[in-house]
Design brief:
The chain is mostly beta strands and 250 residues long. It has a single domain, classed as Sandwich (Immunoglobulin-like). Helices cover 9% and strands 43% of the residues. It contains 2 helices and 18 strands. The strands form 5 sheets. The protein has a 5-stranded mixed sheet with strand order 7-13-12-9-10, covered by helices on one side. A 4-stranded antiparallel sheet has the order 14-4-16-17, with no helix packed on it. Strands 6-5-8-11 form a 4-stranded mixed sheet, with no helix packed on it. Strand 16 and strand 17 form a beta hairpin. The protein is globular.
Length: 250
C-alpha cells in the first residue's frame, strides 16, 4: 500500500469517525446499592485448563508493513490459544452474577492498552465500568483503534503518530469485546468491562485469584477468544475460599 494511498485512507477514516465516535459517559451510581462489608467477603481461586492437541501458533506476517517487522528481533506469533502444561493464558475470569446489589469504587488509575511493534499489549485486558481506558501508540506507524462490541457503543479513532493516545470510558459491562486496527489486520486484542472489580486475566499458569468478593451465591464465568465461555455456580461463605476449575477441551 503506497504512502499516498494510506494517507488518503486515514483521512477518509478520520472524517468518517470523527463525528460518530464519542467517549461514553461515566455511569451513575445505583440508588439502591449497598457498601461491601469487609467482614462478609471471601476469595475465589480459579484455574483454566485445556486437554487435547494444541495447534502450533501461526507466525504473524508483517511484510506489508516493514516498520512493524523492524520492531521485533524474533518471529511474532498469534496469541489466539496459548497453553502451557495444560494451563490456558489470556482467559477473562469474572463474577457474572451475584454482585448486583453492591457499590464498588471505580479505579482511579487507567487501564493502558499500548500498540507496540504493531501488536496490542496486553492482548487481553479487563476494566471496570467508568474506569478510564487509555489506548496508546508507541509505534512510528499510524494505527486506528476499532472496537467491535455487542452491547457497548462502537468506537473507531486514529492514533496517527508515536506518542499519541486517547482515553475512553464505558457505561455498561460487556466481556469479550474485540479491538482491532484496520490498517494492520493482524492486530487484535480483547477487552472485558465489568461493573465491579472482581475480574482478572489468566497468566501463564492459567489461574487468577479474586479477593475480597462479597459472600453469597455467585456465578463465576470464564471467557476465551477461541475456546468460548463456561460458567460455574458457587457458594462463597464469609471469610471463606472457593476453588473453581474451568476445563476446556478440543
Amino acid at each position: 500500500m503506497s504512502t499516498l494511498h494510506v494517507s488518503r485512507w486515514l483521512l477518509g477514516l478520520l472524517l468518517a469517525v470523527s463525528v460518530g465516535c464519542s467517549d461514553s459517559p461515566a455511569p451513575e451510581k445505583k440508588a439502591d446499592s449497598s457498601p461491601v462489608d469487609p467482614a462478609n467477603v471471601g476469595r475465589i481461586a480459579a484455574r483454566v485448563t485445556y486437554s487435547g492437541e494444541v495447534p502450533a501458533p501461526k507466525p504473524i506476517v508483517m511484510s506489508s508493513a516493514p516498520q512493524c517487522a523492524l520492531g521485533h528481533e524474533e518471529p511474532v506469533y498469534e496469541q489466539s490459544l496459548l497453553v502451557e502444561n495444560g494451563r490456558v493464558r489470556n482467559v477473562i475470569v469474572w463474577i457474572e452474577k451475584g454482585l448486583e446489589k453492591y457499590a464498588f469504587a471505580v479505579p482511579s488509575a487507567p487501564l493502558v492498552i499500548d500498540q507496540k511493534g504493531c501488536i496490542y499489549e496486553p492482548h487481553v485486558a479487563v476494566a471496570m465500568v467508568g474506569q478510564a481506558v487509555e489506548f496508546r501508540n508507541s509505534d512510528t506507524e499510524a494505527h486506528n483503534v476499532h472496537g467491535f462490541p455487542s452491547a457497548l457503543s462502537a468506537w473507531n479513532f486514529i492514533l496517527s503518530r508515536k506518542g499519541a493516545s486517547r482515553t475512553i470510558t464505558f457505561d455498561r459491562p460487556e466481556v469479550g469485546v474485540r479491538v482491532g486496527c484496520d490498517i494492520h489486520p493482524w492486530m487484535r486484542g480483547y477487552l472485558g468491562v465489568t461493573d465491579h472489580p472482581h475480574a482478572a486475566v489468566t497468566g501463564a499458569d492459567g489461574s487468577v485469584s479474586l479477593d475480597d468478593v462479597p459472600a453469597g451465591e455467585l456465578t463465576v464465568s470464564a471467557w476465551h477468544e477461541t475456546l468460548g465461555k463456561q460458567t460455574k455456580q458457587v457458594t462463597l461463605a464469609p471469610k471463606g475460599s472457593v476453588e473453581v476449575e474451568f476445563a476446556f477441551a478440543k
